Amino acid sequence: MKEYLEKLPQEIKYLIVLARRVSKETKMPAYLVGGFPRDLILGAKDWDLDITVEGNGIKFAENLAKRLNSGLIRHERFGTATLILGHRLKVDIATTRKEIYPFNASLPVVSPGSLRGDLLRRDFTINAMAVSISKGADQALIDIFGGKEDLAAGKIRVLHDLSFKDDPTRILRAIRFQQRYNFKIEPKTFRFLKEAIKLDLLNKVNPHRLRDELVLMFKEENPLKQLKQLCVLGGLSFISNKLQPGKPTYDLFKSVDKEILWFRQNFPSHRQFDAWLVYFAALLRPLTLVQGNKISQRLGLSKEEEKKIVSCCKINQRFIRRLKNKQAKPEQIFALLKPLSYEAIILLRSISQDSTFKKHIADFLMIYKGMRLCISGDDLHSLGILPGPRYQKILNKVLVARLNGRVKNRQEELALVRKIVK
Ligand code: CTP
What we know:
By secondary structure, the protein is an alpha+beta fold. The protein is about 55% helix and about 10% strand. The protein has helices at about 1-5, 10-25, 35-40, 55-70, 115-120, 145-155, 165, 170-180, 185-200, 205-220, 225-235, 245-265, 275-285, 290-300, 305-315, 315-325, 330-335, 340-350, 355-370, 375-380, 390-405, 410-420; strands at about 30-35, 50-55, 70-75, 80-85, 90-95, 95-100, 110, 130, 140, 155, 185. The protein is elongated, with a radius of gyration of 27 Å.
């Protein structure tokens, strides 16, 4: 694998060199595993490092973190740790382990194991390769299950018959990798996958794990492709029986693609938003507010995410009609859109192709949203107005005038205040 490793960006090479030193000093053999060897061979550009160590992963991680002067999150229960490197790069370090699943869809019982056992517990052959980074190990590819051959042939293949039963989230992972790389799920694996779907095993998985997989799915480059394949293979009853996406949802996803692009091109300096959440909210669009809310809670979305989903679910026909109204005044548009998150605004723009509607939202983002008054409470105080709830009312009136273009500068704002209090 030397020729592949040499092509890596400098900072990754440096990390691997440091890990090799730690491995030598601690006498713990270390390997790059999981998605890393796969993406290394495929020439992908997204480098998360997954290191597994024969020995004690946490001790190894502590040693590496010290050399890098980086933070560390320990997961003692699993013998794993994550280095916090402050940029996009993520380094996960684990101890080689084997896993036993006491029953279908349960969490595994984990115990220390050999590298072979560690690779055998994994989902697909393409994710079960390792590259030794220990000194003298020659950085050769350790490929016990034919992962490299499956990569070349574009095949998703499980390592054993119970893979999907042990961990049904692998159904979603199989679809994700299949769509991401345009691979095929090989026939036997496909049979196991269909069997697991038929047994409704996704419904037995801890909902928080489902949430993580759905987020990953909607973070992929083409969420629509992912969704369509998920529907073809098994449907979405594990999220809700009421979800049966068809053309309207697919069209909405296409529209979301365009609006996300539009937003990123026009507002590159705006706060980052969660694109996956816009797709997820688009998926939930046919549901009622109560249903949408229930799903967010069951999947264990964070409070912030839940709030955003709810505000997306609240966008009803009346709201849309008001934004389509050609006579809508700036202050009305401002009042409608101000409480919405960027995610909800992007979803909103995706819902209708009406040009007035789109323009009102664009105006809000481009003109009204950033509008600030030149005056503040201090100015009202200087004018002899006694502090109290009245301040807010006065400032709101001035803001409306500002949005309408009736006042344009500090002098005109102050003049308006004088007029109001008179
Ligand atoms: N893995 C597994 N079963 C799962 C999740 C993960 O066997 N349900 C194993 C796979 O070997 C996988 C590795 O853990 O490669 C790391 O998982 P993760 O970081 O989730 O995925 P990646 O394969 O790195 O994929 P991605 O490119 O999407 O990050």
